[in-house]
Amino acid sequence: MTETSLYVLQQLINGLTIGSTYALIAIGYTMVYGIIGMINFAHGEVYMIGTYTAFITIIGLLTMGVGSLPIVMLLALMTAIIISSTYGYAIERVAYRPLRGGPRLIPLITAIGMSIFLQNYIRLAQGSRDLAMPALVSGGIQFGDPAVFEVSISWMQLIIWVVTLISMTALALFISRSRLGRACRACAQDLKMTNLLGIDTNRIIALTFVIGAALAAVAGVLLGLYYGTINPYIGFMAGLKAFTAAVLGGIGSIPGAMLGGLILGVTEALTAAFFPSEYKDVVAFSLLVLILLFRPTGLLGKPEVEKV
Amino acid sequence: MSENLLDVSGLMMRFGGLLAVDNVSLQVKPRQIHSVIGPNGAGKTTVFNCISGFYKPTGGEIRYRGQPIQGMTGHRISLLGLVRTFQHVRLFANMTVIENLLVAQHRHLNTNYFAGLVKTPSYRRRQREAMDRAAHWLQQVDLLEFANREAGNLSYGQQRRLEIARCMVTEPGLLMLDEPAAGLNPKETSELDQLILRLRDEQDISVLLIEHDMGLVMGISDHITVINQGAPLADGTPDQVRQNPDVIKAYLGES
Amino acid sequence: MQRALFPALFAAGVTFLLTCLVIGVRLEQEGPNLTVVGADAETWSWIGFAVIVVFLFQLFQQPLSRLKQRLPSPDVTGLLPDHKLRARLRPWLIALVVVGLFVWPFMVSRGAVDLATLTLIYVMLGLGLNIVVGFAGLLDLGYVAFYAVGAYTYALLSEYYGLSFWVCLPIAGLLAATFGCILGFPVLRLRGDYLAIVTLGFGEIIRILLNNWTNVTGGPNGIGGIEKPSLFGLEFSRRASEGGQTFHEFFGISYNSSHKVIFLYLVAVLLVLLTIYVINRIQRMPIGRAWEALREDEIACRSLGLNPTVIKLSAFTMGASFAGFAGCFFAARQGFISPESFTFIESAIILAIVVLGGMGSQLGVILAAIAMTILPELAREFQEYRMLMFGGVMVLMMLWRPQGLLPMKRPHLELKTS
């Protein structure tokens, strides 16, 4: 293989890694939008809080002398999920539930306010500087010709793929098999009707926020370990990217969010391969604008009929 | 051909696999009250939405004063003189009654920014005319005393009348009313009756009416088209329709 | 009470989870090593306090809300003078405020005048965004892009072509309006929340482009040494530039740097007064009413022959042009601009001003802009909490009073009855 094609392969691998975390975050946007039709702008901050809790847990456990890597990672994952889910729940309960049924822009403004609030809350509590952690997992597998270009897949990337795959499968099973999952799907179809049938829709909506937050926390732990640095502002960009992924796949559609995340990750990585890397954000935003303009239903979304 | 104000022929509207309107035709003559009736879900409002440009019909032809209008956007059709009301009142609820009427006269008032900023004499004159027209129609629908009230605070019957007045200030050629009597009490319904008749007789316009209230329809219509399950069932004067066996079976027989 | 116990315990638990790790423990970076430090006793006692308050509040929620219902809600409208008297007092009040605006800077410190100038910029931005969000009901999250266009227009024209502030001001407004038109045209048929995200995307794209187009915009280093406005050609510097003349030489007074500050302030006042006048007029023009009608019901608008795209576009363009003016003035006042000044946070601040003031209400927006810029300056401790406060205000306002502190009043129109 030539140098360029190996290079592209490497970028594809990197893109799939980032893309799968986008997909995890995107599910939170898409599920909430599918049920109550609002863009939960604060979702990116929930992800950011997930990374912070993961860092705190990992460093805490390491200082306490817990050396086993799987245990540390598992505990970090669990703590992050618990704390982020609590945030997801609390945000919905305090800021969104009282506004249900009002004009559409009001909850969006609330969500933006919530996002700014949480960002600065973490900034005040944890400082605004970048925090860096030495890599927990190093090494990986290399292939390709060392003389031309060596493609590498790090263990961390493999972990990200595996964990993403497990989370997605768990979600898919939950949605398709469990009773609550069925209620979730019913709510997405027709919230009012589901309510009339005696299902506590408030509870289902809260559950949606919790699931979305938990998946965002998983993404937070994975990306935090992958990059090794965090600051209170990472949630904004990650949130926007994930939202783009959700829209790309068709907002409201869970498989769409997965697909959209992967496509966006790969597109970004390939852009970064051939252009200055600053422009990869421009590509993501342009993609968002173009999809909304020309195919607002995304790749897998259903069209909406205007009601007169 | 051109004696018809509105000429709908072979109208089709398909949503995915559902054929909501199947080959509907109707002709509205000048200065007539033409009603479209049919059981719930018969596709009456869909016909309305096609004529007024809110849906793009999948087939057929709609002509207004001889000019084909199918597929035009809603606001262009309205500018031609086809103005409609809605099944669920759609007022600008947080604006006052007068403001509602002024918005409706947008096309008469549409001036350039400069004229409005310095209040040129012609701008002032046009504003005054708009206010007078608004006052005239408020008097017609008996809402003058509520002129500065927010539209959302009016009673339901008043909101219905305001919606009609809002259509009338645009000086339409064909007024399309979508179930105007829904939710009104008998007294309000009979007032509405009189209002619609007055519009036809004094304003030289035609009215296309969708209505459930059979008393109202039979009493004031010049012509009735019956639709059932998206397809035309009968067409004629109130007497002809009343005696049509199909109609009795599908519609009147039920109630 | 017993029934409330479980929810109260639950709420207290949630509060504890929300605070324990994130506030109770702090990450500290020492060189390459990251460590965790437990927060001090004071922080922990605050956490405990918060948990207890939430617990008690949830426990006694029912009695509390019953108590609240029994309290009479104060009626402030009765305290205001009646309709006619207010109409008569109004011109006098406005005249008084305007005179005050012009006299005031000569009596206070330079810093205060400077702060007032900054506030006026936010007033302009707030009023401009109010057209888009408040009147037309279009949530524009990329408003700062037009502000940037205005600022960079002046900075670049002044740097490369030596054009003066007064020449650039209308150009900046026009260019920002053009941008608004070009960006607005494709996106305005989108539904409300999509529109918000797309405008946000546009805002970020413009910022990233400014950041990376280094050979023209200077990239992250920005553009410095931007010329200050002059008074009919008189400069406010200590020494005149080539062929120019300074203000103090012309009037034969000694140089005082506060002249410049006061002059900038007065320019800002003029711009703001002009903005208020124009928006006030437009609001009562057919197009202004059409904006509001569109916010209320787009489908009804279409049925009445109003073209939604054109009307939205005019609101978008008009709002953008005011941001352009404000940006041009901002560049002139700062003398230095960089993409840092045009982040999403800036858009969010302007939105918070509009939301706090009451969407659509001009007086409300003005007061909110003043409060939001002056409060953080009054006390240094506020500065730290400024953004937290902005975010909180947006959430609380939407929950408590979505119409804003001073909701818009409908104009009273007299009809001649015949």
UniProtKB/TrEMBL annotation, chain A:
The topology of this chain with respect to the membrane is:
Multi-pass membrane protein
Does the record bear Metal-binding in its keywords? Answer: no
Q: Which InterPro entries match?
A: ABC_transp_permease (IPR001851), BCAA_transport_permease (IPR052157)
Q: Please give the superkingdom of this protein's source.
A: Bacteria
Question: Where would you find this protein in the cell?
Answer: Cell inner membrane
Write out the transmembrane intervals.
Answer: 12-34, 46-65, 71-90, 102-122, 155-175, 204-227
Q: Keywords assigned by UniProt?
A: Amino-acid transport, Cell inner membrane, Cell membrane, Membrane, Transmembrane, Transmembrane helix, Transport
Pfam families the UniProt entry points to = BPD_transp_2 (PF02653)
The family this protein is said to belong to: Belongs to the binding-protein-dependent transport system permease family. LivHM subfamily.
Q: What is this protein called?
A: L-leucine ABC transporter membrane protein /L-isoleucine ABC transporter membrane protein /L-valine ABC transporter membrane protein
TrEMBL record, chain B:
User: By its UniProt entry, which InterPro entries does this protein fall under?
Assistant: AAA+_ATPase, ABC_AA/LPS_Transport, ABC_transporter-like_ATP-bd, ABC_transporter-like_CS, BCA_ABC_TP_C, P-loop_NTPase
Its keywords, alphabetically, are: Amino-acid transport, ATP-binding, Nucleotide-binding, Transport
Q: Which residues form a coiled coil?
A: none
GO terms for MF: ATP binding
Q: Which residues form the ABC transporter domain?
A: 6-254
* Keyword Transmembrane helix in annotation: no
What Gene3D superfamilies has UniProt attached to this entry? Answer: P-loop containing nucleotide triphosphate hydrolases
NCBIfam families tied to this protein: PRK11300.1 (NF008449)
- Record family assignment: Belongs to the ABC transporter superfamily.
Q: What is this protein called?
A: L-leucine ABC transporter ATP-binding protein /L-isoleucine ABC transporter ATP-binding protein /L-valine ABC transporter ATP-binding protein
Species of origin:
Marinobacterium sediminicola
UniProtKB/TrEMBL annotation, chain C:
Organism's domain of life? Answer: Bacteria
Q: Which residues cross the membrane?
A: 43-60, 92-109, 138-157, 163-185, 261-279, 313-336, 348-375, 387-403
Q: How does it sit in the membrane?
A: Multi-pass membrane protein
Q: Where is the High-affinity branched-chain amino acid transport system permease LivHM N-terminal domain?
A: 4-104
A Pfam family recorded for this sequence: BPD_transp_2
InterPro entries per record: ABC_transp_permease, LivHM_N, LivM-like
Q: Which UniProt keywords apply?
A: Cell membrane, Membrane, Transmembrane, Transmembrane helix
Question: Looking at the keywords, is Magnesium present?
Answer: no
Major subcellular location class? membrane
User: In which compartments does the protein localize?
Assistant: Cell inner membrane
| NCBIfam families noted in UniProt | PRK11301.1
Q: What is this protein called?
A: L-leucine ABC transporter membrane protein /L-isoleucine ABC transporter membrane protein /L-valine ABC transporter membrane protein
User: Native species of this protein?
Assistant: Marinobacterium sediminicola
According to the entry, what is the taxonomic lineage of the organism? Bacteria, Pseudomonadati, Pseudomonadota, Gammaproteobacteria, Oceanospirillales
